[in-house]
Each structure stands twice: as structure tokens, then as C-alpha cells.
């Protein structure tokens, strides 16, 4: 048994999710116990700086170094706080903060940059820290994302039931888990489905003149009417029709894309609530469209996780579009839906420490299974 802290901040840049977990077992045959979990919001100034960099604002190398340090300090503080009233951990798995992600092309490897350097976190916490998880998969020809499918296989697969594990963070990503039999591991698929909360959060911030950062429970969107003509138009985007493996981020579904959505909506004379309802429908419909186009068959159950699980209107729209396929959350099968991604990076760190691979080539497109993450040891006293 090892006690591990998982640290994660996603494309929504809400804050740092920290999970303190105990992990038992080997490779895919593991069990976890969640000891503590909490989200530590970024200071407003730091969050705004991260968002501006993600929106392609030019900064100097000096500013980049300062931002890298600031994020590392915030991550280290979260790690120290989450274990303050518990028996301490011996290992940290830190995803860091993604500020740039470029999928591979025919002639170019993928590139993904996460700030919040692990070496500094190790020094500040005096704990072995594993970070930069995406680099090894990218070097093996993969997308570097999504990295959760192997964890989903270990923790959420079922002997009789096929499942989709749908994370809705800033970006949505899915893991398709066939029933656990007949070479099931080779049949697992995973990819980024497209926008999750990122466009909605940006739109709410703009429509509320900065007074709100998200649509609580989806109530604002629920009060509007969906413009299906716009949804159909937006679903023609090439990304939704690109076969997996594939990954994306704010570089594609960010500020520029949202402004195009606002322009497209002008001729339809939508109210703010109508626009949010339509944008929410894009997230739901793009998820379902990805399933219909690229899954070998529709799943028997969909389990949601991530911040989008708290958007009750989005969840309701997903259930309507998926018809008879039940939509629940990973909470209902024993894995915390809010902190699943942080738990995942604790598991990835554990696997790296144990010498196990962390990626699934069938999901990322890598040429082989590889160990993920760079190990940083604190300096000896």
C-alpha cells in the first residue's frame, strides 16, 4: 500500500483538485481508497494570467518562468494542505496546468505543455513528485491524451456491461470499456470528444459582464430555447468527424471559436439564455455524435465525471439524446466523480513508481505501452 497525492487542474482552470488516496495492488489489479479530496482555487490574478496565456497572449520568457513557478507553488501548497490532518503521503502525481496542446499531424509529433514543474514541487513538499506525464506517450507517437483510459479500465470496467466513462471538464473525453472478457483490453477506445465546459464558462463570463464564471446547475441555459439549426451547423466542424485517436483543447475550442459562435447566432436573434441552451446542446450532441460515429456499438451505460456532472441541464440533455442508455455518474459505482481526474494522476504516479505502463496505445495512438512521468526526488537534508 502506498499513500499518494494526485494533483490536477484542467482546461477550465477552476483551481487545483487534490486527492489523497491509498493504492493497493499491481498494474490493472489495483484498489484505491480516497482519504481526502478538495479543490483549491487559484488566486484570481494567477487564474487570469493562465487563461490569457491559454488564449494565446504573448508573454516573455521571464513571465513564462514566473508563471511556471507560481503554478508550482500553488500545486505544492495544495499537496501540503490536503494531507495536513492525515497521515502523510510518500508520493505526488502532478499533472500540472496545460497551457498549450497540439495534436500530431502527418509530419509532426504532438506537443503538450504543462506548467508547474515537478522538481520544484518535490523541493517544496519534500516528497517524491512525478510530473510531465504526457511526454513519453507523445515521444512514442501518441496524442499524449487522453491518459485516463488505463485507469478507467482498472477501476471502472465491468464483467458483463459495456460502459462509456465520459469526463466533462473544460474539454470532454471518453473511455469506451467493453465488457471485461475476450481480449477486452485491446478493444478499449478513448479520445477527446470536443468542448465540455470551456465554451460555456467563457460565454457565461461574457454574457454576465464578468459577474459569473459558470452556469450553476445549468439553470441559465435551462431557461432558454435550443436553436437546433445552429447546433446542426456547429456539428459540421471537422473535429467531430475526425476518427480517433484524437485530442483537442482551448487552442481549437476556445475564445476564437466562441466568438465565431456568437457571430453565427446573430441572425437567429437569440437571448442570452437561448445562446447558452444552444451551446450546452453542442456539448451534449457532440458527445453523442462521437459515440454514434466511432464506437463499435452504443454502450449499455454512460458514467459521467468531472465538473460537468454538476450541470444538471447538460446531464438531462445527454440522457434525452442517449434515449434508453442510462446516464449516471461514477459516484454511483464507487469512484468520486468530482475528483476522478486527480485520483487518476495519483494512480499514474503509483504505476510509474512500480514500473508499470500508464498509457493505452488504443486510446492515444502511441506505438507501444510506455511508463509515463518524470520522477523528481527532493534533495537530501
UniProtKB/TrEMBL annotation:
<dbReference type="GO" id="GO:0016773">
    <property type="term" value="F:phosphotransferase activity, alcohol group as acceptor"/>
</dbReference>
<keyword id="KW-0418">Kinase</keyword>
<keyword id="KW-0808">Transferase</keyword>
<dbReference type="Pfam" id="PF03702">
    <property type="entry name" value="AnmK"/>
</dbReference>
<dbReference type="GO" id="GO:0006040">
    <property type="term" value="P:amino sugar metabolic process"/>
</dbReference>
<comment type="function">
    <text>Catalyzes the specific phosphorylation of 1,6-anhydro-N-acetylmuramic acid (anhMurNAc) with the simultaneous cleavage of the 1,6-anhydro ring, generating MurNAc-6-P. Is required for the utilization of anhMurNAc either imported from the medium or derived from its own cell wall murein, and thus plays a role in cell wall recycling.</text>
</comment>
<protein>
    <recommendedName>
        <fullName>Anhydro-N-acetylmuramic acid kinase</fullName>
        <ecNumber>2.7.1.170</ecNumber>
    </recommendedName>
</protein>
<keyword id="KW-0547">Nucleotide-binding</keyword>
<comment type="pathway">
    <text>Amino-sugar metabolism; 1,6-anhydro-N-acetylmuramate degradation.</text>
</comment>
<keyword id="KW-0067">ATP-binding</keyword>
<comment type="pathway">
    <text>Cell wall biogenesis; peptidoglycan recycling.</text>
</comment>
<dbReference type="InterPro" id="IPR005338">
    <property type="entry name" value="Anhydro_N_Ac-Mur_kinase"/>
</dbReference>
<comment type="similarity">
    <text>Belongs to the anhydro-N-acetylmuramic acid kinase family.</text>
</comment>
<dbReference type="GO" id="GO:0097175">
    <property type="term" value="P:1,6-anhydro-N-acetyl-beta-muramic acid catabolic process"/>
</dbReference>
<dbReference type="InterPro" id="IPR043129">
    <property type="entry name" value="ATPase_NBD"/>
</dbReference>
<dbReference type="GO" id="GO:0005524">
    <property type="term" value="F:ATP binding"/>
</dbReference>
<feature type="binding site">
    <location>
        <begin position="10"/>
        <end position="17"/>
    </location>
    <ligand>
        <name>ATP</name>
    </ligand>
</feature>
<dbReference type="GO" id="GO:0016301">
    <property type="term" value="F:kinase activity"/>
</dbReference>
<feature type="region of interest" description="Disordered">
    <location>
        <begin position="362"/>
        <end position="381"/>
    </location>
</feature>
<keyword id="KW-0119">Carbohydrate metabolism</keyword>
<dbReference type="GO" id="GO:0009254">
    <property type="term" value="P:peptidoglycan turnover"/>
</dbReference>
Amino acid at each position: 500500500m502506498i499513500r499518494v497525492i494526485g494533483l490536477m487542474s484542467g482546461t477550465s482552470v477552476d483551481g487545483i483538485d487534490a486527492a489523497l488516496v491509498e493504492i493497493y495492488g499491481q498494474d490493472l489489479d489495483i484498489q484505491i481508497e480516497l482519504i481526502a479530496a478538495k479543490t483549491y482555487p487559484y488566486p484570481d490574478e494567477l487564474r487570469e494570467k493562465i487563461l490569457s496565456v491559454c488564449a494565446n497572449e504573448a508573454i516573455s520568457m521571464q513571465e513564462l518562468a514566473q508563471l511556471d513557478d507560481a503554478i508550482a507553488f500553488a500545486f505544492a501548497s495544495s499537496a501540503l494542505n490536503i494531507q495536513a490532518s492525515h497521515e502523510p503521503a510518500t508520493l505526488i502525481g502532478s499533472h500540472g496546468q496545460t497551457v498549450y496542446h497540439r495534436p500530431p499531424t502527418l509530419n509532426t509529433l504532438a506537443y503538450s505543455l504543462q506548467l508547474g514543474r515537478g522538481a520544484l514541487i518535490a523541493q517544496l513538499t519534500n516528497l517524491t513528485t512525478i510530473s510531465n506525464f504526457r511526454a513519453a506517450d507523445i515521444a512514442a507517437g501518441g496524442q499524449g491524451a487522453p491518459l485516463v483510459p488505463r485507469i478507467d479500465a482498472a477501476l471502472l470496467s465491468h464483467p458483463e456491461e459495456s460502459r462509456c466513462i465520459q469526463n466533462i471538464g473544460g474539454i470532454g473525453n471518453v473511455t469506451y470499456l467493453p465488457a471485461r472478457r475476450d481480449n477486452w483490453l485491446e478493444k478499449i477506445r478513448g479520445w477527446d470528444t470536443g468542448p465540455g465546459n470551456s465554451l460555456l464558462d467563457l460565454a457565461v463570463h461574457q454574457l454576465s459582464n464578468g459577474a459569473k464564471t459558470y452556469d450553476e446547475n445549468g439553470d441559465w441555459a435551462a431557461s432558454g430555447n435550443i436553436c437546433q439549426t445552429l447546433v446542426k451547423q456547429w456539428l459540421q466542424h471537422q473535429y467531430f468527424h475526425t476518427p480517433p485517436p484524437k485530442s483537442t483543447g482551448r487552442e481549437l475550442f476556445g475564445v476564437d471559436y466562441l466568438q465565431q459562435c456568437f457571430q453565427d447566432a446573430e441572425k437567429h436573434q437569440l437571448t442570452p439564455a437561448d445562446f447558452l441552451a444552444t451551446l450546452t446542446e453542442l456539448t451534449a450532441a457532440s458527445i453523442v455524435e462521437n459515440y454514434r460515429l466511432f464506437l463499435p456499438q452504443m454502450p449499455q451505460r454512460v458514467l459521467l465525471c468531472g465538473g460537468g456532472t454538476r450541470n444538471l441541464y447538460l446531464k438531462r440533455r445527454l440522457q434525452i439524446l442517449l434515449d434508453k442508455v442510462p446516464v449516471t455518474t461514477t459516484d454511483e459505482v464507487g469512484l468520486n466523480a468530482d475528483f476522478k481526474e486527480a485520483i487518476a494522476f495519483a494512480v499514474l504516479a503509483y504505476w510509474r513508481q512500480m514500473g508499470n505502463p500508464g498509457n493505452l496505445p488504443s486510446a492515444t495512438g502511441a506505438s507501444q505501452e510506455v511508463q509515463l512521468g518524470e520522477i523528481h526526488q527532493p534533495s537530501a537534508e
